[in-house]
Write a structure and sequence with these properties.
Blueprint (H helix, E strand, L loop, with lengths): L1 H10 L8 H24 L11 H31 L1
């Protein structure tokens, strides 16, 4: 649950100009921080990968979370902008 909140809060720091490369860099930064935190917890034995889970799946999960929250952010931001224009 906590990781979902982190993804949501990270989306709040999107660059003002949302070009493809800036959003991609933001996504890359988010996934890099997430994988680094996971690596630290695994190497200090505070966390383990169970069964088939590995860093690759964690990386994909980070992309999925980020893109999901980014999509919701865009939808609700556009909805807010259109309601302010009326």
């Amino acid at each position: 649950m906590g990781y979902i909140v982190v993804a949501y809060l990270f989306i709040q720091w999107l660059p003002k100009q949302q070009t493809f490369w800036r959003v991609f860099l933001h996504l890359f930064l988010f996934t890099g921080i997430g994988i680094t935190m996971e690596w630290i917890h695994i190497t200090t034995h505070h966390m383990t990968h169970e069964k088939w889970w590995n860093y690759g799946w964690s990386y994909l999960a980070n992309w999925f979370l980020y893109l999901t929250f980014y999509s919701f952010h865009r939808v609700f931001r556009l909805e807010k902008l259109s309601s302010q224009e009326k």
